[in-house]
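User: Can you help me understand a structure? I only have the sequence.
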Amino acid sequence: MNQKLIVLTVVLTLLSTAWPALAESDMQAIKRMIAERLPGATVDHIAPSPVTGMYEVGVNGGDVVYVSEDGRYLLSGTLIDLVTQENLTERVLAGQRLKTLNGVPEDSMIIYEPEGDVKHTLTTFTDIDCPYCRKMHREMTLLNRMGIRVRYMLFPRTGVASPSYEKAVSVWCAEDQQAEMTKAKSGAIPEIAVCDNPVRDHMALGRRLGLRGTPYTITDTGRAISGYVSAPELLESLEADKQKAVR
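Assistant: Let's start by predicting it. Here is the structure, written out as tokens:
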């Protein structure tokens, strides 16, 4: 879809003009326009944007674009409030990520729980053979001690029918998933096991959420983190997110 969009970074001073509620007829008109001009695109939501004359449109489960009210212009990029310096597009995307993850049952994840109170929850797409995923996993005890709960979803980067995929399935099908994951990320080959598993679903979901590499982590505020971040840095950023949410 991105090849069909005019890719622009939209940096605009936002107006505080209140918009009336979006009429059902307007929503249907925008949906028809996108369907006609961007075949294959799925519209998730339509809402007035902070910019007069533009609608915010969520597409394909993980993107946000802006469409003019006459349906002629489409902007894809980052919308920034120059007064507050807030990335308004990221705020919308964070909400979409959380909504998507809230629809995933936790029994389809491999979870590492803190012994005490849970201060934060991370959802991490991980690849058993990814060096930085292994580095993150070596800090799992520390993360849990800090009160950080980690929910793993499996994303073998080399794809289906690869050794990494077979390892992911074997770990999922193990009697003790957490222990088998730790062994596999230490370099041991997991005992081959086959069962019904969510690995393909995890991979599809990761792509939908914009994953480009592993580890790929979604915080409990919906922020996306690409790559490895040390446990102390993670905690610091999570606490900063919490303070922002309170203000």
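Now, to help you interpret it: Confidence is low (pLDDT under 50) at residues 1-21. The radius of gyration is 20 Å. Let me know which part you'd like to focus on.
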